[in-house]
Amino acid sequence: MKEVYYRSPEKSVCADVIPFFENGEFKLFYLRDYRDWENCGEGCPWCLLTTKDLVNYVDHGPVLLRGTKEEQDLYVFTGSIIKHNDEYVIFYTGHNPHLRRQGLPEQKILKATSKDLLHWEKDKSFVFEAPSYLEMHDFRDPFVYFDEERKEYGMLIAARLKNQNHTTSKGVTLVAYSKDLVKWDLQKEPFYYPHAYFTHECPDLFKMGDWYYLIFSEFTDKIATTYRMSKSINGPWISPMVNTFDGHAFYAAKSYLDDKGRRILFGWNPIKNFEKDHDFWQWGGNIIPHEIIQKENGELVVRCPEEIRNAFTKDYEIKETHRLGKVEVKENKFVIGEEGLSQIEFNELPQMCKLEVKFKINDYKGDFGVLLRYFNNGDNFYKIKIEPRFNRVAMDMWPRRDGNLPMEADTERYLNLKVGEENTLLAIIKGSVLEVYINDEVAMSSRMFDTKEGKFGLYALNTGVEFKDLKVKELHE
Questions:
Q1: Which of the listed residues 275, 291, 310 is the one where a domain comes to its end?
Q2: β-bridge partners, 20
Q3: Is residue 3 part of a domain?
Q4: Cβ atoms < 10 Å from Cβ of 330
């Protein structure tokens, strides 16, 4: 059966993805959080998920197993995989909160090897821990690559400096070098140190064209996966105006090239506590792939991979059910809005579907967008809300988490629209998961937990918008 936006079985969730590509197939190692200590015990292994098309997945279950409460790797946390000669090598974070209470490092970098990606042997002789000038409990997320300039291996490490004034500014990306993947020389000079974040989680490094890109995730400022760019692997690293790929609901993302030369970025759309709209975001959820695109100026944007877009081929009949305010309909064109609220409502959407529509704006006033799960005559709904005057798209819902906020602030994405120009909106829905792409360069991930049914529609508030070519398609089994 076809599957998009994979989530591990039963209560468990998928967390940080460590991607690898070989023999026409993505090998996606991911952290499985069982969310069920009573039946599954404490700790977190790496599982292996394989896919040839980002739609059909095979979960091979745990392959890099968690340790005991007495061992360093009770939680097998983020790392990276590299092929060395005829052997696969994983460097990973061994995390154990029980060790902190004993005055021992909570985190160390560990190593495992395999011949087939399925069966892994932990190298008990390899332990890499924080030196004395770093905080001992934050030394993790190793990303190993081959440095073509130095002709040796590099390892990026997320760490925290000691003796700094501000707790939230100690985060640093360090680098170590090795000729044999055994002995590592940690450089004291930071690879990247912006004095801005608690830590730089899940680093990733690659070159595209003339530019090098450093990706990491941070929870100090926006809670997002962000990137920096440089013409040199040694920096200086600069931040573009829009330095994130998505919002809060896309985190800990890492990338890998496929055999088509595309770089796919794998993050996760988190669930919320008790899977309720107004509760707190949690760690882990569904795996979300975005395709990275490089603009002419070197900046990066993302779009929906074609395999996911093209998987939805079964036509779904759209039936109009109600109009409010000023709505003109001609064939598949909808001219909506003026002063006040105008909207057109249609029948209920399938639980898994693709929605596409084109639109043009008349001015920079008001807001407009797509209504989802419009229920109880509008007492419950979700909105893909576009506000040209604020250069943003965001998720909105009713009832709101906070009645004073006109949107879900943690989903907000920068969007620059021009009057009279045609734009495209693509939305992929799978149960509570919502993935939105505008103009194949702006992505917004979100969730819809509480309201599970209801109509969809198009609306405009205090502005006029022309929508056309509205299509809904289901996944073809």
A1: 310
A2: 27
A3: no
A4: 8
Q: What is the DSSP letter of 128?
A: B
Q: Considering 256, 277, 310, which residue would you say is the last residue of a domain?
A: 310
280 & 187 share domain: yes
Contacts of 86 (CB under 8 A, 6+ apart): 115
Instruction: Give the predicted TM-score (pTM) of the model.
Output: 0.97
The pair of structure tokens assigned to 86 is 């005829």
Q: How many domains does the chain have?
A: 2
Amino acid identity of residue 142, one-letter, is P
In 96-233, DSSP assigns E strands to 107-114, 121-122, 134-147, 152-161, 171-178, 185-186, 201-208, 211-218, 224-230
Task: Write out the residue range of the structural domain in which residue 148 sits.
Answer: 13-310
User: What is the gyration radius of the CA atoms in the chain, in angstroms?
Assistant: 23
What tokens does 371 get?
């209504």
DSSP 8-state symbol, 98: H
The model's pLDDT over 187-221, given as tens digits with 9 standing for 90+, comes to 999 999 999 999 999 999 999 999 999 999 999 99
CATH number for the domain harbouring residue 465:
2.60.120.560
Neighbours of 414 (CB within 10 A): 12
